[in-house]
Amino acid sequence: MVSEAEANKEKDEEGKKLISLKNDADQFIYNTEKQLTEHSARIPQNVKDDVRKDISALNEAIVSENTENISEALERLKNSSMEIGKAIYSTENSDSGSTEGSEGDNQQQDQQQEEQSEEKKEEGEKSEEKKDEEKK
Questions:
Q1: Does pLDDT of 7 surpass 70?
Q2: Span 81-97, mean pLDDT?
Q3: CA torsion through residues 8, 14, 15, 17, sign
Q4: In percent, how much of the chain has pLDDT > 70?
Q5: Structural domain boundaries in the chain
Q6: pLDDT above 90 as % of the chain
Q7: In whole angstroms, what separates CA 31 from the centre of its chain?
Q8: Which residues are CB-neighbours of 64 under 8 A, at least 6 positions away?
Q9: What three-state secondary structure class fits 24?
Q10: Helix (H, G, I), strand (E, B) or coil at 65
Q11: Helices vs strands, H then E, count in the chain
């Protein structure tokens, strides 16, 4: 039995690698499609087309269950999906010229939210300490 397990160990590791790679690919496809729908107005059509083409290629690679093909297609999709971020960032930069005043407000709000979350964390720690003392 031990010899059978050792003989199948390599095959099992390959299967595990394939499953993990397919899961990563599925997750990346989901997140990329979500970005495409959420930021559709800010992304140029040629970028959308390239990303969709790479998503289709990755889906075909997943069906083929070839780890090399999946890895290559996933890498192509990662590279093309970076263009989504670039497009979003470039439109935000062009919009930021008119919203410079609100940018300072956003930073102030972020700082206040961080302070509030720290206070809540401290309160939670204090309440845990009180509970521990009451148990004693």
A1: yes
A2: 81
A3: positive
A4: 69
A5: 7-95, 105-136
A6: 50
A7: 6
A8: 70
A9: helix
A10: coil
A11: 4, 0
CATH number of 7-95: 1.20.1270.10
Q: How confident is the model at residue 114 (pLDDT cuts 50, 70, 90)?
A: low
Position 81: which residue type? S
Q: 10 Å Cβ neighbour count for 26?
A: 13
Determine the length of the chain.
Answer: 136
* 34: helix, strand or coil: helix
Q: Which residue has the tokens 């302070």?
A: 115
Cα 93 to Cα 91: distance, rounded to the nearest angstrom: 5
Say whether 1 sits in a helix, a strand or coil. Answer: coil
Report which residue type is found at 136: K
32, 77 contact by CB (below 8 A): yes
Specify the residue for token string 């390239």: 50
Structure tokens at 122: 């401290």
Is residue 21 a contact partner of residue 71, using CB atoms and an 8 Å limit? Answer: yes
